[in-house]
Amino acid sequence: MNALGGKAIDVTIVGGGMITNDLILPSIYHLQRMGTVNSINICALNSEPLRALKDNAELREAFPDGDFIPYPDIQESPEERFPDLYKSVIGGMDKYNAVVIAVPDHLHYPMLKEALANDQHVLCVKPLVLNYNESVEIEKQAKDRGLFIGVEYHKRFDRRALLAKRHYRLGELGEFVMGEAKMIEPYFYRFSNFQDWFTVENADPFTYVGCHYVDLVWFITGLKPVGVSVNGVKGKFPNGNEGYMWANGRVVFENGAILSVTDGLGYPDDGAGSNEQCLTMFCEGDGKSGMIKHNDQFRGVTHSYLEGIGCGGSMFNFVNPDFFRLVPWEGRGYKPVGYGFESIAATIGAISRMEDGMKHVNQDEALRKRREVIEETDEKGIIATPANSYVNELVMEAARMSILRDGDFVDILYGASPRVALRG
User: If we measure between CA atoms, which residue out of 120, 85, 97, 78 comes closest to residue 14?
Assistant: First the structure.
């Protein structure tokens, strides 16, 4: 029985890296045992990450009945690469199931196209794509075929963000005018597979994690960003590849408000937290001011362990219990809790409910019903979709243009054909 209601769907995860290990697979495993997900495929570039997922002791303990079909087989040599295997795996799925895209940002677009061409619904890690025209193309193709696309901006499901959105939209905080956000990921990311793809020509910390806070300000306030300037600090990965290790962006919104966003791959491995992330927004009211302040890396919980088990192996830890944790529950193993899980469950659950009973209606009626669900989700604006998060693609496109030009200001122009353009 599906605990979320709807049809049990098959899921193919494309990408076997850190986000799959830490968030996506445990979430999908739990949805599987709750009856929302049926079979699970995971497709990766080679066998090494798939073997690591199979051997993960924490996942085996938390989900003793959980399993997936690996592509390629884990017996394949880890040196052998299968860059196009995902196409045949997706092509072998029955229509109207789900593909989870969890690969580096610059690879999202071709994989989205492949999933949609095979009539699969999609959950994609953020950002959806890196330019606006691609997002419009993907949105149109999905709507034409009645396919659901959810973008994994999980901070929208943080209760703090939902509370801030409600109070802001009720006018109880004033109008946003000045703010700053920060997300500094661990230094050890530099030793991961980041060093193979997080290079100057492909990515930077602002587009990789700063996008979370740009989306969050848009989500809370409804204000459109109209200009971006981003500077980066380059460095070398252990393998010699050059990447932006740090970035600072200034985002100007349509009412003149300014958000400063600082990001990097440099939170100390011996630090007490798994990262550093926060958001402060100052607002103007009638003869007074308001404020939103979220210290997201520290939620009032600290643990001091006998041995170093923190993100970087530290013994004293700032514990964030709200994003994603595995905790005891009334069933076997452990269950995931937090807004990271809730975000994934919302998209997979929406797809499951959308497909419930569709086999009993004709093709035209099924398409109409699917489009209704998509439009309702777009309008509700909680699950991020191409239609309600499109400003992020404009910001990402502007940010990449700016950082590659050492911080030149890039305007975001709306109207009939939104676009970005270098100022002047």
Answer: 85
